[in-house]
Amino acid sequence: ELGGNEIIEDIILEHALKxxxxxxxxxxxxxxxxxEENLLVSLTEIDAAxxxxxxFTKGIGPIRKSKLAWRNAxxxxxxxxxxxxxxxxxxxxTVVHGPKYSIQLLVVTTxxxxxxxxxxxxxxxxxATVALELSIDPSAIHGGIVDPISLADPAWPAPIRxxxxxxQPNEVSVPIFTGNRWVIVTTDGTIFQPSVxxxxxxxxxxxxxxxxxxRFKMAQIANSLLENxxxxxxxxxxxxxxxxxxxxxxxxGIRTIEGRKTLTMAGMPAIGINITTMxxxxxxxxxxxxxxx
Length: 293
Known about the structure:
The chain has nine helices and eleven strands. It is α+β, with helices and mostly antiparallel strands. The strands form three sheets. Strands 1, 2, 3, 4 and 5 form a five-stranded antiparallel β-sheet that branches. A four-stranded mixed β-sheet has the order 6-7-8-9. α2 packs across α4, α5 crosses α9 and α6 packs antiparallel against α7.
């Protein structure tokens, strides 16, 4: 389904989670993994078959999907109960149902490109024309038009949301630096008001806010486990194939057993991994050309 560092990282995380669950006396039931698989579909607006197709194109077939569901179930169990405040629920309502601003954007790689693009627009060229020509964002083919955004939506960089809140209709922003890109935005001043009241949406917004908090804490736990995993290459012949996370605590290694490369972790049984050079068109990461069967 996939090869490379990502698979090794998945295996390391799975073993680290098993150790952590055993320490805390937590077990993962079939219902837990089924919940994760159902959640994957319920949070989208497409049918299950289409979700499967999309996952497969990303290297997540039946085997990786079941392992992904198990890891998510384990991480969710480790997070435990979360108390949701009215403020957090209200914020989710604002993101999903609150006022949304129409926006056009143009994304380039340098400040000079952004400055030149703004000058062209101020000199009379249409924003959409310049965006179509210069923008590296997928929205370029639509003249930079994207779905209306909420000023409370953390999916959008804060500098963009803050700039948008101050823009007058048809005003073009100064270039905005977002970490590795320069962005200019404009709005026609249209604000789409909520069509669902807070009281009507509160139950669903609480669910979404809870899922958001869980996901954030799950990511923290996963990152911590990976950062503190110690990976040792116990067979020198593997050095040309494996580049994994930096070593720390729980000993994880690769050794040869009966001609097979085997990943092991302190306190956990060995599992076999057949490691061969991948066909060129299958290599995901050329630094670590692995094919995991």
